[in-house]
Amino acid sequence: MEVVGVVVEYNPFHNGHQFHLSAARADTGADLVIAVMSGNFLQRGEPALCDKWTRARMALLGGADLVFELPYQFAVQQAETFADGAVSILSAAGCRSLCFGSEAGDTSAFIRTLDFLEEKDTAYQHNIKAHLSTGVSYPKAASLSFKELQPGENLVDLSLPNNILGLQYIRAIRSQTSRMKPVTITRKNAGYHDEHFSSESIASATSIRKAIQEGQSVEQVNKYFPPTTSRLLQNYLNTYGQFHTWDQYWPLLKYRLIQCSAEELREIYEMEEGLEHRVKKAAITAVSFSQFMESIKTKRYTWTRLQRACVHILTNAKKTEMEEFKRAQYLRLLGMTQKGRRYLQSHKKNLGLPLVSKASSCRKGELDLDIKASRIYSLGISGRAQEELLKKEFAQSPVFEDSIG
Amino acid sequence: MEVVGVVVEYNPFHNGHQFHLSAARADTGADLVIAVMSGNFLQRGEPALCDKWTRARMALLGGADLVFELPYQFAVQQAETFADGAVSILSAAGCRSLCFGSEAGDTSAFIRTLDFLEEKDTAYQHNIKAHLSTGVSYPKAASLSFKELQPGENLVDLSLPNNILGLQYIRAIRSQTSRMKPVTITRKNAGYHDEHFSSESIASATSIRKAIQEGQSVEQVNKYFPPTTSRLLQNYLNTYGQFHTWDQYWPLLKYRLIQCSAEELREIYEMEEGLEHRVKKAAITAVSFSQFMESIKTKRYTWTRLQRACVHILTNAKKTEMEEFKRAQYLRLLGMTQKGRRYLQSHKKNLGLPLVSKASSCRKGELDLDIKASRIYSLGISGRAQEELLKKEFAQSPVFEDSIG
Questions:
Q1: Annotated binding residues of B, as ranges?
Q2: How far apart are alpha carbons B139 and B130 in whole angstroms?
Q3: Most exposed residue of A128, B57, B131, B234, measured as fewest CB within 10 angstroms of its CB?
């Protein structure tokens, strides 16, 4: 049986994702698609528009057969750790290939780039260090250092976000000696960060979120996603009254920053080099999350890095917890189709990690960070609906939908 | 110069307080009244209806000449520590007497009771221990043990809240070898906890707060306080849009309890004997502060004790911080009249503790807990007014009003 894995966030699931899933299936001749998906907080340090169960449903209706959660510890992370977590889950779930979208769109170019970097590693690391000492951010330092190595034209451009992620997937596959075959497909039309709609029916998730956050209704943007996404988003709005944005968590973050000591803050993951004093001071005067972010940003830290730090402060994610494991320790099932269920039944004994179907029946402590993050995510919703969402994390069984893909 | 001290919370200042201030002045023949007042969080573990600057103003207009803040470390405490803090401040400020209201109303009866308890201390402590082991609360155990000592009729009844406090003032005066003379006057008409209005113009602060919290306007209850209180309360409402109640802090307390670990909670003052697990669990399902309190209460802990613990969780007040000092370390001036100012000018060199007039000009770290508590108190207010209140704590100079007393 041919099984392909994809790494996703689906915030929300749109036509570009639909295209990617179909292409992944077609390009690899796969019978089954497994998605590993970030939970309620995402790689860029943001709360997802709607919860992971709803997004898992979108994935199933869009063509995935199984959806596993990328644990918080790997999801709210820079590319390298994100890739380590995702690759370890897809490998353990039995994927034969990992298919990712990239700007480069050429798998062998990625392999060559990785070989090139491994060969030049000493010089590369040395250059990065030198650039960092001038005060620039890590991604900037890495990108400049890469250029200084004078890569040939047959290597990928490492200033583009999906190329960076792609390279990390391949590095993780190699370092974990996974048998998954990497496959890349060119991302269609919309760049990851594009904020404007660039084609008739394909738009980046960023532009869709922006439109919704600026007050456009689900109906106004629904040409960019399949009808299933549209229906699920509308349901979410009807049930919980709102989508999740940082603004809802700002009062909690502000409180947290006032309440805790600088020493306590220093235990939080990504709080380094005096950043704890900077954020504590800024929290007192800032009146909104965006104003707060503006007042703490520097050349040294990217917006994304700072947003991730804010999520960790919000969830109280400590360095000790975040650095505990290099690979995922469990496969938490968020959803499945009929075909996905059959696959799990027949492969139960061959899975590389323990399968977790329900948080309440899980070994004590194992999912602590994921459960806590989801509970805090629920606090973004006000009124009675908050309780509904709060309960969900612990009691919810994997969602079941039959794929339309 | 005859100077009398009073220990107050003024939440809010009402006719009974006015009576007490006048009586304190008359009974002691004092030229000057110094009040030591709890800050924004009170002895019973509640946020004050309005902030300490407004309440200091009420005190000055009601007849006090100087108002000092009882630091958080002593204010949000059981009677013994509360009294230790208050007595150390009034002594250091130069009071010749301390005048307190009590149910007993007979100073010599308090002295006899204290002598009696000191003499019977071994048996008393032994009985308390025995009662505590049956699971009752400390106040209950102390009250039962006192009765078992068969106190004569000329001692005070230690089941009444103001008698308990009064006894602690006298104990603190003795243990600190303060030269202050204790004087008590009978509390007029309304018992501390009376929730119903019991006379034409005197009502307990509890009943006034209850009426306001249940939606009565300031106007509807203004016969119970002087016009100055009425005006200040109405101003507060106009400026900040609301009075402070636990309900406003419930979302923050709930978040805090979900976010922190049981180990972290155990460092909080008054978190003992597994209470940390109990409160963490209850926070997840409770939908309001009162529901939360109902679900955590036991025979062992009084409501007040649990409310105080909740304030400490909210403000992140650690055991180490709360237990650091047995007496106050500074005199933080909240307000003064012309006469109070002259007194301070002429007695500057004789004060027993350093005078702090403005938080921003204070030694680093000294006021940390008070400043933090006030900032968190500000978060109870929503919108732009929150920022106003937040700034106040650090920038405010002592308020100045001329006494009408």
A1: 7-20, 101, 162, 187
A2: 13
A3: B234
> How far apart, in Å, are the Cα atoms of B193 and each of A107, B160, B289, B301?
76, 10, 20, 18
Contact residues for B41 (Cβ-Cβ < 8 A; gap 6+)? B47, B48, B72, B75, B76, B311, B315, B373, B377
- Tell whether B395 lies on the interface with A, counting CB pairs under 8 A: no
Q: Do B379 and A260 touch (CB under 8 A)?
A: no
- The distance of B4 to chain A (nearest Cα, Å) reads 37
Residue given tokens 């500057």 in the structure block: B348
Per-residue pLDDT tens over the stretch A323-355: 999 999 999 999 999 999 999 999 999 999 999
Contact assignment for A256 to B254 by CB distance below 8 Å = no
Judged by a CB distance cut-off of 8 A, whether residue A385 touches chain B is no
pLDDT of A219 reads 85
Is residue B72 within 8 Å of residue B317, measured between CB atoms?
Answer: yes
Distance CA A201, CA A189 (A): 10
Hey, are the CB atoms on A379 and B316 less than 8 Å from each other? no
- Chains A, B: CB pairs < 8 Å: 52
Q: Residue B45: which region, alpha, beta or left (left: phi > 0; alpha: psi -120 to 50)?
A: left
Asked whether the beta carbons of residue B284 and residue A315 sit closer than 8 angstroms, the reply is: no
Q: Which of B285, B316, B384 sits opposite A260 (nearest CB)?
A: B316
- For the CA atoms of B346, B352, B357, B361, the dihedral, rounded to the nearest 10 degrees, stands at 120
Is A254's CB within 8 Å of B384's CB?
Answer: no
Q: Which residue, B50, B21, B22, B38, is CA-closest to B79?
A: B38
Among A309-313, A390-394, B345-349, the least confident range: A390-394
Cβ of B372 within 8 Å of Cβ of A258? The answer is yes
CA distances from A379 to B28, B78, B253, B303, B378 (A): 55, 33, 12, 26, 20
Q: Of A314, A316, A375, which is closest to B284 when you measure between CB atoms?
A: A375
Q: Is B371 on the interface with A (CB under 8 A)?
A: no
Chosen CATH of A3-103+184-239+326-363 out of 3.40.50.620, 2.60.40.10, 3.40.50.2300, 3.30.1480.10: 3.40.50.620
pLDDT digits (tens, 9 = 90+) for B113-162: 999 999 999 999 999 999 999 988 888 899 899 989 988 889 999 888 89
Contact B284 A258 (CB under 8 A): no
In sequence order, which residues have a C-beta less than 8 Å from that of residue B227 and are 6 or more positions away? none
Task: pLDDT band for A269, please (50, 70, 90 cuts).
Answer: very high
ipTM for the assembly? 0.93
Residue type, B267: E
Question: How far, in Å, CA of A138 to CA of A315, rounded?
Answer: 24
**Average confidence score pLDDT of chain A:** 92
Give SS3 for B273.
coil
Annotated domain spans of chain B: 3-103+184-244+325-400, 120-159, 246-322
For residue A285, what is the nearest residue in chain B, using CA coordinates? B387
pLDDT number for residue B48: 97
| Closest listed residue to residue B32, CA positions, set B361, B288, B337 | B337
Min Cα distance B367 → chain A (Å) is 14
Fold that domain B3-103+184-244+325-400 belongs to in CATH: Rossmann fold (3.40.50)
